[in-house]
Amino acid sequence: MSGEESNTYHSERELQILDKFYSRLKKERFVNNQASTYYSSLNQKFIIPGIIITGISSVASFLATSDMLEDDEKQAFSVGVGIMTAVATIIQSLSSSFGFAVKKDSFQTSADIYDSLLTKVEFEIYNPNEKFDDFCNDLETEILKIKSDCKYLPPLHVYDLWKKRKNSKNKMKNQDSDKLLDTINLPNNDKLLDNDKNSDTDKLLDTNLQNTSKGNLSMVDNNLNLNLENTDSTILNIDGQNNNQESES
Question: How far apart are CA 105 and CA 112, in angstroms?
């Protein structure tokens, strides 16, 4: 490794891209692992009955050749052995034709490779030592190789399991954040928004009340001024009448 590569640092945008790669690889690992488990369970439904039937037919075949039983009983055991052997052969043929074992191994191999790529991306995020473009190109090549080697598509219900798992994780994160806010006596975002709305409403009401009170005071002042003017004019009229009477006398 060269000195330039050992001192490589990724920008914030490059780290975001690597984080998206990491999330996608986690999804692919989960999907392939669940698909392998699903086909393994289907394969066991054929393998286990075949093993049991083969074991029983082996015991019956031994009894059919022993001297402990009568000839009629030996013939019955021989017929039973033939029937059970035929059933075991049919079960094995069905298992091989469905290809459950091959699909299980293919998806398990893909899940293991995705797990290795996850480790590689995780090391690159925490300890970058490669050029970003070269790393992304190599990662793309390896993912495409996995897709080409695994020629089967995962069942659709596996993707539903991934969505449910992701939603449950998000709910748990939200619940944990709410509990943390409650422990430190801080309101969450919804409560802050409600408080802001209430404070804005209170401010608006106070402003309206102030404007209303100012308007009422101005109206009272105008009425008082009008009453004073009317009183002054009345006094002037009375004084004028008195002066006129004195001049006539």
Answer: 11
